[in-house]
Amino acid sequence: MINSEGAALPQADVAGRHKRLVARTMLISVFTAISRILGYGREALTAALFGDTSAVYDAFVTAWRVPNLFRRLLGEGAVSTSLVREMTKEDHERGNEAGRVLMWETLRLAAWILFSLTVVIMGAVSLMPDTMPFTGWRWLGDDAAAMRELTVQVTPYVIAICLAALAGGALSVRGRFTGTSAGPGVMNVIAILTLLLIGWRFGWQGLGPDDGAAGRERHLDMARWFSWGLLASGVAQLAMLVPELRAAKLLGHFTPSPETRAKAVHVLKTSLPVALGAAVYQINVLVDSFMANNLLEVGGASTYYYANRIQQLPLALVATAATTAVFPAMQALAQKRAFGELRRLHEQTHLGIAFIALPASIGLFLLATPVTTVLLEHGEFSARGVERTADAISMLCIALLPGGAVALVTRAFFALGDYRTPVRVSMAMLVLNVVLNLAFVVGLGMDTGGLALATALVSWLNVLVLLPALQTRLREQEGGDVAGLPELGSRIARMLAAAVASGGAAFGAYRALAEGPDSVTALFVAIACGVGSYIVAAQLLGCPEWLETRARIEGKLRRKLGR
Asked: DSSP string spanning 260-273?
């Protein structure tokens, strides 16, 4: 590894940087795990309240995709990535005060853009017809009025959450991740409190989709309350960053120079290619939701949404956390032209993602039905909803590993300043995903599993195209071959063997103990057996990822016991 002057860093500094990256990843992983567990509580409550055959809740989850599209696109994606890159450069070349001023000028410009975008979206959705022109396709679903109203209500979430994501990106440049990582957990706490209030106000069971206009109005009132709670959570996530901004010395008056204004405009302009790449993936998610809402029977959008949410725990626990943690480091290494170190960091992070994603994929595939039953089959949620959700989960499990890999590979391209390659590949994948959705759902008559299978196949193809392209890009930057990690294939093979053993142990334990599909005790024992078996197998097979984790745990315990 080299420093900014091009000199080799001492080995102690390299080890120190690695430890900081590990600690940062673990911190983000802990907060992500808490958030996802809370998220499961949130989804269990919505399932109990709205059930699996509510056209209103189908409209709500589809409407909720709209602000989430722009959150990922503008906040967590394009502009945030561009701001991290330019702020890192500004800090390095002109000092931290210059970076602070650039951050605030970028936030100011982004706020105006977000406000204008929100107004345009709300106006456009309000004027949308119930069916697509010329085709007659019910693109707003079975309850078009609810879809329009709820989309208008939740869209302002874009402003608060995107500004929070941008501020979080700036904080990551200064090495602060706590507030940003805790934000989703805060959102879920507020959502859970809102849902408990809804249950108290409207009752946990009552008029529903089969009760005509009265049941529909009850569900719509509940969805309105939930929307207000989510809007409040966006404001809370932005407000909670203020103490960290103060601690990082990023608050205070700023007077941007014409040069800084130009740089802030440059941040937004250079984010456009990234935005297009991010938009393709997120539009893909939105298209899936619209297709579920229109091509599947009532409840298709809701059950597919629940399947996505359950799949997200292992994906976000490691893939999202690791990608967030290492991107500033990859950016800095690319800035210093340390491409060999960048490749090794990139591959090491992939191995860390695979170490969790492989056993999670196999275990969730084998236990999809009991997991769905325990989490969702309460209140209004029926056994048919469990079947549809589990069907989608079993296919989405196949996308766990490539889903995490694609996010990391894409960030590696961004760190190298290459935005075109991920955009082109993502656009091709978008078209392919739509074609496969139609083939599986319309052509073969598949349900939610058809949409999930299309997502899985496209995810694998995406990463299989991007990885070789990244290696070529790194060789071009270095002017020759860039050495990667040794025994990469062997390490993955050992992980896979341990994951298969883990899945077999978990499934066997569940089958031996379960008295029915809703056996909570059997499920938790099965998960514990799977985790334990994976640790034992990883130890016996000598998986470096486990050996390093074990060494860090033992080191921390020795330090604590030695005090």
From this structure: HHHHHHHHHHHHHH
